[in-house]
Design goal:
This protein has 193 residues and is mainly α. It folds into two domains: 150 residues, no CATH class; 41 residues. 64% of the residues lie in helices and 2% in strands. Strands 1-2 form a two-stranded parallel sheet. Helix 1 packs across helix 7, helix 3 runs antiparallel to helix 5 and helix 7 packs across helix 8. The longest helix has 39 residues. The protein is elongated, with a radius of gyration of 23 Å. The relative contact order is 0.15. The model has no long low-confidence stretch (mean pLDDT 85).
Amino acid sequence: MTEEGPELAALLHRLTGCPREFLDEPRIGDTGRIVVSAVVFDLLWDLGSIGAPHVHLPFAGADPSDRNGMRCTLVACWLLHDPWFRARGTLGAHAHGFLIEDIPLMASAVDAERFVTDPERREELARTCLARLGLRPRGETEEQATDRRTSLDSLERRRILDATRAAEQRAREVREALARKAVEEAAAKATRE
C-alpha cells in the first residue's frame, strides 16, 4: 500500500450506486441470468490484463453454493470498473488476484448484498480491494489504511467469534467435569464415613 489511490468516499459512493443487475442471479448450470466470467473478462480487458498468460477465469459455477461468491465477484467488478482504476490501464493482474483469491474468502463471511447496503461492509470491500492493488485511500498513511482495514475484517471477526465460542464451550466442559468430580468425591467420602 505504498501508492496513493482514489478517495475512499468516491469508492463507497460507487458501491451504494451498484446497479441491481450486479446482484441478479449468476449463471449456475442452466439457471441464472448473469454470466460472471463474461463480466470479469470485460473488466480485465478494460484494466489492461486480457491476453496475459496468467489470466484464468474460474467464474462459471455448477454448484448452487457458488451463488454468493459469484454475486460478490459481480459487486467487486462494479467497484473495479471505476474510472479511476480504468484510467491506470495496468491494474488488471492485481484485480484478477483480488477476484480469484480475496473475494471467495470474503464471500464465505459476507452476503453480497451487504457489500452494497451495509456501510462497514462497503468500506471493507473497498479497502481490501485497494490493499490488493497496492494502494491506500487518498489522504491516508499506510498505517492508517492498514489499521482501518484490519478493524473491518469480517474474516478476522468470524475467527475471533469462533475462538471465543470454542473457549466458552471448553470452559463449560471443565466446569461440568469439576462439578461431577466434586459429587463423586462427596459420595466417596460419605461412603467411607
